[in-house]
Amino acid sequence: MAITVRAVSPATTVKDTYHSEDDFLNELLWTGVRDTKLPNRTYLIASIKSKDGEDIFNKRFKNEPFLKHAEAVMLCDDDFGDAVAVHHDIEITLTLNYSPCSSCACELKIL
Ligand SMILES: [Zn+2]
Known about the structure:
- The protein is of the alpha+beta class.
- The protein is 28% helix and 26% strand.
- It has helices at residues 23-30, 70-75, 78-86, 102-109, and strands at 3-5, 18-20, 43-50, 55-62, 90-96.
- The strands form two sheets. The protein has a three-stranded antiparallel sheet with strand order 4-3-5, with helices on both faces. Strands 1-2 form a two-stranded antiparallel sheet.
- It is globular, with a radius of gyration of 16 Å.
- The structure holds zinc ion.
- Zinc ion is lined by residues 69, 71, 100-101, 103-104.
- Zinc ion (ZN) is lined by residues 69, 71, 100-101, 103-104.
- It comes from Pocillopora meandrina.
């Protein structure tokens, strides 16, 4: 993964100040930045670590348009389910480009 961010001068726009081969990260990181369009996808990175900081799980999820929010896709994912079921004393970090809706927030609360 490589993200390059150039210094912004008054003559440059956000659009030509970044370059990454990774569309997923581009969309996630630049959502809501002025002069960029709001993507109609939700990008979510789920990361699980043990209390000691050991990496247990890391996976990316996207919503399924008109079907499932990204959080719901994650909660239905077998790998995610296994990681949560097998390990105890874990820290789950979710990084998303949009806030969870109230229904997903409720689902996340019971994790
Ligand atoms: Zn939702």
